Amino acid sequence: MKSLAELKAIRDRAQAELQMRQENPNAARVMVGMATCGIAAGARPVLNAFVEEIAKRGLKDVTVTQTGCIGICQYEPVVEVEIPGEEKVTYVKMTPEKAVKVVNDHLVNHNVVTEYTIGTATK
Amino acid sequence: MRELSLNVMDVAQNSVRAEATLVRISVTESDKDDRLTIEIADDGCGMTQEQVQQVIDPFFTTRTTRKVGLGVPLFKLSAEQTGGSFDIQSEKGVGTTTTASYVKSHVDMTPLGDINSTVKILIQCNPQIDFVYTCTTDNGSFTLDTRELREVLGDVSLDTPDVLLWIGDYLEENTKNIYGGA
Q1: What is the pTM of this model?
Q2: Is there a contact between A55 and B9 if contact means CB atoms under 8 Å apart?
Q3: Domains along the sequence of chain B with CATH
Q4: Residue A98: which CATH number?
Q5: What is the domain extent for residue A36?
Q6: Given CB atoms, is B50 within the 8 Å cutoff of chain A?
Q7: What distance in Å separates residue A88's CA from the closest CA in chain B?
Q8: Domain count of chain A?
Q9: 20 to 30 Å CA-CA from B165: which of A57, A102, B56, B85?
Q10: Interface predicted TM-score of the whole assembly (ipTM), two decimals
């Protein structure tokens, strides 16, 4: 059973790492579109997949956050990946499976998954 | 929306945009009474009486980027199509409370779905806001209050990956008994 005591232990571990996280201005950002359109298209499992895969791989310098509707509702779920110093990439019609591939290829190995990008989808 | 929990996530975003510091989400389910009630209450900027009237219109939104706002109308529809009811109370500067009530056995009832996941994502994406989530069924009640978690966590943020995993498991374990494993 999960207890508050366990949460305390997590805090102590996290505090040690906190310094490291804050000092890193080069954190990559993953933004999942979570307006009505994104949610209805299935953005929630996509966001969960990103969080789980990033946690599983222990990536410290990535933040996953939600954003609003950017006006391309027909392509939802939309995910934008921003790595400092690199061009922002917009992935469309995402699924949890695609999310795992984006974490592994793009965030870890810096190879954009071109086949999932909006540029490919609109061709 | 395939799950009511997705409507909750959507409408709770309105509270976030209203700069709420505390959002209360309560889900009360009773097989005995054949009712499910969802309430989302915030202490955000609130709305004028005129705006409250307008917000149920899909072609009203306070955003300037486009002309439609479907969150509240979809939530209202989901409740009314089961023979339930829908209500918004709001006061400028005080906050807004949205209540949707459902007749559970109705053929058009949308399943509640993964509400724990909704609560987890809301906490993750808005670590600066406090959430109080209460779920109640005929079997009992459970409350998660992020203010209590914050007390334990000190300066460690609620969106730390390990903390989020703990919140997810904590929600699941504690709500399992209440929902009777269903």
Answers
A1: 0.86
A2: no
A3: 4-175 (3.30.565.10)
A4: 3.40.30.10
A5: 25-121
A6: no
A7: 20
A8: 1
A9: A102
A10: 0.76
